[in-house]
Amino acid sequence: MIGCLTPIIARIILPLMTTVQRDLAPGIPRTRIAIITNHGYGGVEIPVGGAPDTGGQNFYVNSLARSLGDLGMEVTIFARGGFPFFESRSVRENTEQLTNHVRYVYVPGGGNDFLRKEDIAIALDEEVEWLTRFICDEAREAHVDPWAYFECINTHYWDAAVMGCKLVERWRDQAAYEFLREAAGESFKPFLKPFEGDERHRQSLSREIEIFLGQLASKAFPEDTPEAMLTRLLGNTPISGDTVTPSSGTAQSCRAIELSCLLGRTLADNLVVNGKTLRDILKKIDTHVWTPHSIGIIKERNFWNKPEETVRNLKFRERNAHEESVCRHTPLFCSTSSEIWRALVSYHGVDPHAVFDFPPCIDHEAFRPRNDDETTDAYNYLSDQSGISVDDLRAGLIVFETSRMDRTKRKDLLLDSFASVADRLDNVYLFIGGGPEGSDTFAQLQKRKKSLPALKGRAFLLGFIPEDVLAPLFSTADLFVSASEMEGFGMSMSQAAAAQVAVVSSDLIPFATQYAKDAALVVRAGDVDGFAQAMERLLTDDVERKRRAKLLKEIADEMDWKVTTSDFLKWFRSLRS
Fold first, then answer.
1. CA–CA dist 354, 406 (Å, integer)
2. What is the pLDDT of residues 312-325, one digit of tens each?
3. Residue 483 pLDDT > 90, yes or no?
């Protein structure tokens, strides 16, 4: 198996092992792939830099889905629905097409209101029940088992991963039940309780299949010893596993349970129905691949010096528990940074060969250097927002930041740092994107901006940025700055790099620290003076600023969606074959 420890080797060797059909001939069916992204406002249209819990991950999912579609897949993106779109009365429901071969399906559950990602666990069970029915209905029409309908289930962030695990477990429960009904002819059927519908899942049938098998065998052949049962069912097969003698007062009942488990384990490994053992069947069903985007323990470490009320509000304890369970019950993973790979392997104990290196790539058609004509609308937008003429903006230097309006992005620090810069440098301007404008965080930033005289006419809060000007805005910038303290990767920073813009980054943004540490200017998170000095250094040194921007562009050019997506498919299929 080849995992993220050797991504370069994988990209050389794996194309020799498996091919991906890029252009399908008419009439050839497309393989189906499911993606689950559950929180925020993921959809066909992403409210960039404005909606809560909405940002880089949604860009990642949509770009991945488009690439899969281009490579011959039929892609379904499942996202939470049943509540209104951001700043709209239109309810997220039914389906929408992202492309001809990529659709969004909105999954109801958890009520009719938006839920922040820290609170979304309350919606997951209801969503999984709806999702189970939806996939079963479509699979029935396609005349396949529900677990065979999609080649792969790729989930994003911990909430979607929990849904993926629960979905797979339901399928495994159903397959395990069908296996039991067929096992050993008619021997087990009289003793098999009909676990109908959800009762199969409440019984955790597939997770406890060994004891179910062992108990069924004991009931079917009550006069036989375990060895005699195996001889009757399989031939002379020894019981697998070492026995342990319980020492408590319940030794006899514990011993019976232990024998049932050992007997069932041997049957699961050796009893064959329709040419397959139960182990073979259950393994084939689980096609789940989890892409975390961030890991709770990493975020928690970044917040150990924060006030208790701030930390508790982020619910790290609950998140870590969910992620621990996901890591125990998921076969394959994608890491978007080496820091996430490390946490998966060292903290959660994931097999390193089960992890594929899949950093966020870049839509190079949207995010690229642009000429003066291509940036006209973006400059007009900044002029309308600031009252500064286009000529003055073009003649000056622009510092840009955009992300969702969240305290962890530390936009307040950027205002404080830029105030020092504006005191010393003329004709430099700061534009900060992100909404909603009605949020408490936005109001506090406005108040902070007004309290700093140096920022008058020099710093501007853009709020929600229209999608048609967002990508060109990067090319108006001379410097992109992010002081974020809670970032899974830093896609806006990689987009700035693709536009050949120099960046100043906190030391908690993986793109800068792990992919571009020699090109980005990295500052310790929370260091107001450090950010001011870094901005001033690059704004006053055109040669150094352009040198770093060129290096960043070269790094960004290597992050291609179609190439990396193709490599992922080859890796996945090589491990599933």
1. 33
2. 888 888 999 999 99
3. yes
**Domain residue ranges in the chain:** 7-16+30-173+284-361+561-576, 184-270, 373-557
Other residues' Cβ atoms within 10 Å of the Cβ of residue 260: 20
The CATH superfamily assigned to 373-557 is Glycogen Phosphorylase B; (3.40.50.2000)
pLDDT in tens, 71-111: 999 999 999 999 998 888 889 999 999 999 999 999 999 99
Tokens of 520: 């980005």
What distance in Å separates the CA atoms of residue 414 and residue 401, rounded to the nearest whole number? Answer: 9
Element (H, E) at 301: helix 296-302
Instruction: Please indicate, yes or no, whether the overall pTM of this predicted structure exceeds 0.90.
Output: no
Within this chain, domains 7-16+30-173+284-361+561-576 and 373-557 share the same CATH topology: yes
Binned at pLDDT 50, 70 and 90, residue 453 comes out as: very high
* Cα 67 to Cα 544: distance, rounded to the nearest angstrom: 35
Question: 219 φ, ψ to 5°?
Answer: -70, -35
HSE value, Cβ hemisphere, 13 Å, CA-based, for 38: 33
Topology of domain 7-16+30-173+284-361+561-576 in CATH is: Rossmann fold (3.40.50)
The residue type at 458: R
| Residues 77 and 28 sit within 8 Å (Cβ to Cβ) | no
